[in-house]
Amino acid sequence: MKKYQLNNLSSGMVLVPNLLIANSLLQRSLGLLNHGSFAKGEGLLIRPCSGVHTFGMRFSIDIIFFDADMRVLRIVHALKPWRMYGPVWSAKCVLELPVDSIYDAGTREGDHFEIITGTEH
Questions:
Q1: How many CA atoms lie within 13 A of 80 on its CB side?
Q2: Contact at 8 Å (CB) between 62 and 93?
Q3: What is the rounded CA–CA span in Å between residue 73 and residue 32?
Q4: What stretches of 1-121 show up as alpha helix (H) in DSSP?
Q5: Domain residue limits at 112
Q6: Is the pLDDT higher at 25 or at 62?
Q7: Minimal CA–CA distance to 8: which of 120, 121, 109?
Q8: Structural domain count of the chain
C-alpha cells in the first residue's frame, strides 16, 4: 500500500505525515479494525465515504469530513468505540486520526488540504 502525506494548505502545516488511503471496498470495510493502536502522525483517509462507525474498535479516534475539493466540512473529536457518526451528506471522504491530532496543524472547518504522494509501503 502506498504511503502519502496530508498537508493543510490553509495553515501551511503537515497534519498527517504517514497517511494511508482506503479506496477499495475491502480497505474501506476494514478501516482501522485490524489496528491495535493508532500512533501520532498516522491517518487513514477513507474514500468515498460520508459516515463512519467504530464498532469493534478498541480506541477513540478524531475524524475530519472533507468535500470533493478536500475542504474541511466537519470535525469530530474523540469518537468513542462502538459509535456511529454521519452521514455528512456533502462529504466525499473521511480522515480518521489518533485522538487529539486534529488541531496539530491548526485545522478548522473550511481549511483546504492536499494529498502528497509518498513511497511504496
A1: 1
A2: no
A3: 22
A4: 25-30
A5: 2-120
A6: 62
A7: 109
A8: 1
pLDDT in tens, 22-42: 885 555 455 555 656 678 899
Q: Which three cell numbers stand for residue 112?
A: 483546504
8 Å CB contact between 63 and 79 = yes
Write the pLDDT tens digit of every residue in 7-24.
Answer: 999 999 999 999 988 885
Please, which pLDDT band fits residue 103 given cuts at 50, 70 and 90?
A: confident
Average pLDDT over residues 50-74: 93
Grid cell 475539493 — which residue?
A: 69
- Write down the pLDDT at residue 99: 92
**Grid cell listed for 41:** 502522525
Look at residue 102 and give its three-state secondary structure. Answer: helix
Distance (Å) of CA 99 to CA 38, 48, 56, 84: 9, 22, 17, 16
Counted residue by residue, the chain has a size of 121
**Residue carrying the nine cell digits 503537515:** 14
Residue type, 56: G
- Mean of pLDDT values over 72-100: 95
Domain of residue 59, CATH code: 2.60.120.1140
